[in-house]
Amino acid sequence: MRGLMTKALATAALLALTMGAQAKETVVWWDFLGGGDGVRMKQLLEKFNKENPDIEIQATTLEWGVPFYTKVQTSAAVGEGPDVMTYHLSRLPLGVSTGTLREITPDELKAAGIDAKNFTPANWEAAQVDGKQYAVPFDIHSVVLYYNKDLLNKSGLLGDDGLPKGLDGVENFNAALKKLKADGVEVPLSTHTAAGDSQWRIFYSLLGQQDVPFLKDGKVLDGGDEQKAVDTLKEMASWVADGYTPANVEYPASIALFTSGKAAMHINGVWEVPTFTDLAKDGKLGFEWGAVRIPVLYNHPATWADSHSFAVPNNKGKEISPEKLKAVLTVIDWMNKNSLFWATAGHLPAYLPARDSEEFKTMQPNATYAVLADTAVFDPSSTIAGVASPIYEGMQNYFVPAVNGQLDPEEAVKSLKDELQGLIE
Amino acid sequence: MDRKQNLTALLFTGPFIVAYLVIFIYPTIQLVHLSFTDAPLIGPGAWIGFKNYIRLWNDGQMWKSTFNTFYFVLLTVIPTTIIGLALALMVNRLSGWFQSIILACFFLPYILPVSVVILIWQWVLDTQFGIAQPIISYFTGKPVAVFRDRYWAMPMVAFITIWWTNGFNLLLFIAGLRNISQDYYDAAALDGAGRFKQFVYITLPLIWPVTALVLTIQLILQLKIFDQVYLLTQGGPANATYVMVQYIYKQAFQLNKGGYAATVSLALFALIVVLSVLQYQVLRSRGQK
Predict the structure, then answer these.
(1) Contact between chains at A78 and B42 (C-beta distance less than 8 A)
(2) Smallest CA–CA separation between A225 and chain B, in Å?
(3) What's the pLDDT tens digit per position in A246-276?
(4) Domains of chain B, CATH where assigned
């Protein structure tokens, strides 16, 4: 009798448990979206939780870069990672090499209705290592040239179409900076001269415009490419040396220089579009602004780009259950299907139905710079590349002092090359 | 009787010995083992013999980090000891509640967490808004982004470290000074010794054991410099502040090389043991002279 009671109770408890699980699956979510785009993501998360009563996302935003990726790597290694997280595709080979990411099998993708056809092949394959899928792309993001229409207009650098003119080619670009300075603009060009990641984005774009591979066949800046890298770095350093760009400016300060109307131009990621959109909407900007693709300083258009994606950590000793994985993939699919809203955060949706939609094609300023996707150059596919990678660290350590006139560009490139080459071998 | 005593001794020291074995000796042995493998940050690796040690010997950034660590030690250990002693001599001449207040003022930075200390100094030395920049500008002619400058960075980290930790040294010296009997000074004064002579022939020899202690503690502490560098410069610019623990962090957490990180850790461990034993012996023999 007592045995029967226990059994009945146990069955009931088990039933209640499974039913509870079916009723509501929680998905622990980590992201690094602390910029202007983080506000948009919070709205998306709220919308998801409202529309999907059977899944609850518990989201946490952590600090972008090294803190985020260090935490992800160590927590996954001891089985304490989240269920799903945002991940830069540039860093995927590195993440896979440390065993941080769980493969998402073709069957699992198919069951969730996630189809490679809805992404550009290059973008989809960037989420693979050795043919295995480790992530689902969410957006493509890049750097753009933000400009102050009023200041450019005063110096005759604004065309009738409201777009900057006469900025292509190194000489023209420098002449424009000189003209702006001569016309009394305090800061012709604002960049985050104190931040290695920002300098990498500019440097890699300029390398791309000259078809110089940063990494080729396991060799970093091989042969004559080293000299071209030095020349490019010298060009970037000259903006600071000639007084066009202030030295040692931190990330927030470089934005403040632009929003306060002191800077005529500002190179930054598309993720700051919401910052300027919102300020302009509230009438707090005080000038007309725009954003265009980075000018062609060298041979042809090319812009650094990266991709935010969603990945599932390889939680050691705590394999994700099929039910949980299903919920996670539902979240990922939903996010992509709603990524038109994510585009208001400045990004280009990776999901083609959203990117090809009429609504996106008329969305400003995205529509103006969307062409950059055609000539985007992505970080080399390597374990030394990506956010919080040895390349990024080397940029901070060697290139930032070089840009600010503290270190000889030749020495900076050589030190970086030697260090990275040592890591590959 | 003896046996009972032994048992009591074992009972009292037992918990410590167990804890010592489990949380110090065992990990140390594991660390040595790890240094012979190619293990990642977490999990085991394959035995690779002395490869890590050969790499260590040929690793330019590792030598640079070692050099920087010594540079930092040079900038902090002796200055902080001298400043601590000088302040203690001054504070010691005060009395009553006034002395307590002054002592508290000097000790206050020491109780602050490192992150707070760093935030304070980042603002004080900020290129645009820092209240210390006019002083720097007075000498250099323009504001200096001290933590982004190859030549300023390390001395500034050292300066902040001294500001932060000096209170503790001061306290040790005060305790030492209070142990010196007033009789010595009275006798010396009767014999016509001035303040300077009293300091050289009475205070200095009698405070020497405390000085040796402070120097040794500081040496061990400063060889392990990490927090300030990690929070302020991450080893930059251009390796100017790369110190050994920062390098260990890079190998372990950024490059996922647990085995090699263990090798560098062991090198630092050996360095600290040798240097601190050597220094203490030298200082003690000087004190006995």
Answers:
(1) yes
(2) 22
(3) 998 888 889 999 999 999 999 999 999 989 9
(4) 35-288 (1.10.3720.10)
